[in-house]
Design a protein that fits this description.
By secondary structure, this protein is an alpha+beta fold. It contains 13 helices and 15 strands. The strands form 5 sheets. The chain has a 5-stranded antiparallel β-sheet, with helices on both faces. A 3-stranded antiparallel β-sheet has the order 3-4-5. The longest helix is centred in the middle third of the chain and has 54 residues.
Length: 538
């Protein structure tokens, strides 16, 4: 409690000192053509023109010196006015204090010379009364008594507020915990009791601090208004608070029509997105077919259309949002747009790549693909990245821009019926008959469970290198999940080793550093070793 009051007092004193500095420096920092006469921190009159070659600041300084001299002289200190050719003389006990000329009239306020002089005389009478009050010990004692009473009352109110805050906090925290315990669904608490109690405490502490701040503010304003020298500060504090409350209230009332329009726009956007969601859900479930949209791209299309609708709604509602026309709001919008434009270039590129992959239908979810050096089943095609599962306990995330910049092999697209294409590569020396290698690879495929017999496996010689041919076995397999696919490929490799070992053929890729003693070639009578079979003569 003490810390809050001390902090509030320090903040208010800083604000008051700022107001005093601003008030005292008004004439010093004003333009040469305008200067204000102050006495007891209260403005008396503003000089706007020169008189007989004396500038407005010099006139204000001379008027302040004469005013202090006149008030230090004993007398009734009666204020009067006397018209002259140069203007209207404002006098105290018949002695001129300053002159109000036609150049001093505020034309923006549509005042006349007489009205300006009358207003100056009234302000002068007020500062004279406050100066006389400052010299009256009885008035000062009364002000001190009122200040003491106000301070005691403020302390009592602060004590009551503190006790009431503590009692109310205990009561509301208990009620919040009790209601949070009752909010359950299927035996699970929907709202944690500790979190609910913490929210209630923070709310009460904020409300308590606000009330204490208002109490200190009003106490300080009342005390300052009791003394003549600080009275203008107390009046300024009260008028500032009232003007602030009026400004806030007026802003709230003025923002209601625009806010209502924005709410209507957002409600219509929500209704439109709801209809779009139902439409795309029917397409995804196959209940409705359209020629321009496939079920595979219904989900991303729904997301894109939803984002477009909400962006359009935000653009339409932007002028109606409270504060949208202020310079601060415009500056913040420019700053956010600049940050997005500088930092989102790569993000936009990734999103564009995702759209190309999605609507170009390079691959679909569940298909078996090879992207760069990664091979596996596509599990997710996102806006910025694609995930594939290799079946070896790995889930690989690849950025969409990387996918567009590399070669993609789809093993699930060009197949007969269900399944996907399975292939593997071996390199065998030239001294092994190629017909025998073909037959052994086909026999290994036939031994592998999960490889389809129809269409039959095929062996292709994809390259004739310097030291060995490259054989590629291509077959069609049934499994569709990532893990069985990896197991199937492992089983195929195992069967290839078994078949080659059975027929005594080494799986090697010979490399030479010198010419061999005997040429590495296969004579015609050895073109068909087992399990290869010679073609029947016609």
């Amino acid at each position: 409690m003490k810390r809050i009051v001390i902090a509030c007092c320090l903040g208010l004193l800083a604000a008051i000192s700022g107001l005093a500095a601003e008030s005292n420096a008004a004439s010093a920092t004003a333009e040469d053509a305008v200067s204000t006469l102050h006495y007891f921190n209260r403005p008396v009159f503003t000089f706007r023109g020169s008189l007989s070659g004396v500038s407005a600041p010099d006139r204000a300084q001379r008027a302040a010196a004469r005013l202090r001299e006149q008030l230090d002289t004993p007398g009734a200190h009666r204020v009067g006015q006397k018209p002259e050719s140069m203007g209207i003389l404002v006098q105290i006990d018949g002695a001129t204090t300053f002159v109000v000329t036609a150049d001093d009239v505020d034309v923006l306020q549509q005042e006349t010379l007489e009205a300006s002089a009358q207003r100056a005389a009234q302000a002068l009478e007020r500062v004279i009364a406050e100066s006389r009050e400052a010299r009256d010990w009885q008035a000062l004692l009364r002000a001190l008594g009122w200040s003491t009473l106000a301070s005691a009352l403020a302390l009592v109110l602060a004590w009551v507020l503190r006790r009431g805050h503590a009692a109310l906090a205990r009561r509301l925290v208990t009620l919040s915990e009790w209601h949070a315990r009752k909010l359950q669904w299927g035996g699970v608490e929907l709202l944690q009791r500790e979190r609910a109690a913490a929210v209630v405490r923070k709310f009460l502490n904020g409300a308590y601090a606000l009330v204490v701040l208002l109490l200190v503010y009003e106490w300080l304003s009342f005390v300052l208004a009791r003394f003549p020298f600080t009275r203008v500060w107390g009046e300024t504090l009260n008028s500032y608070l009232l003007n602030l409350l009026a400004l806030i209230g007026g802003a709230i009332v003025g923002a209601v029509p625009g806010l209502f329009t924005a709410v209507v726009i957002f409600y219509l956007a929500r209704a439109v997105t709801g209809m779009l969601h139902r439409f795309f859900d029917r397409i995804q479930q196959g209940q409705h077919n359209v020629a321009w949209l496939d079920a595979d791209v219904a989900v991303p299309t729904r997301r894109i259309t939803t984002a477009v609708v909400w962006l359009f709604a935000l653009a339409m509602a932007y002028p109606y949002l409270p504060g949208a026309q202020t310079e601060a709001f415009k500056g913040l919008s420019v700053l956010v747009g600049l940050m997005i434009s500088l930092g989102a270039s790569n993000l936009v590129g990734q999103a564009a790549s995702g759209l190309i992959l999605t609507y170009g239908r390079v691959f679909r979810r569940g298909e078996y693909v090879r992207i760069a050096d990664q091979e596996g089943t596509v599990t997710e095609i996102g806006m910025f990245a694609t995930r594939i599962r290799t079946g070896l306990g790995e889930e690989v995330t690849i950025s969409n821009s990387t996918i567009l910049g590399s070669t993609t092999k789809n093993y699930s697209r060009a197949v007969q019926g269900e399944g996907y294409v399975l292939d593997t590569t071996v390199t065998i020396g030239y001294d092994t008959p190629w017909r025998q290698v073909h037959a052994m690879l086909q026999e290994a495929a036939a031994r592998t469970e999960g490889v389809l017999a129809s269409p039959a496996p095929h062996v292709f010689q994809t390259a004739l290198s310097d030291w060995y041919p490259v054989y590629r076995l291509v077959c069609q397999a049934v499994p569709t999940e990532p893990r069985p696919r990896a197991l199937l490929l492992s089983a195929l490799h195992a069967n290839i080793q078994d078949v080659f070992n059975t027929y005594g053929v080494q799986i090697m890729s010979p490399q030479y550093i010198a010419d061999p003693l005997a040429p590495k070639q296969v004579p015609p009578d050895q073109w068909y070793p087992a399990p290869a079979q010679a073609p029947h003569p016609p």
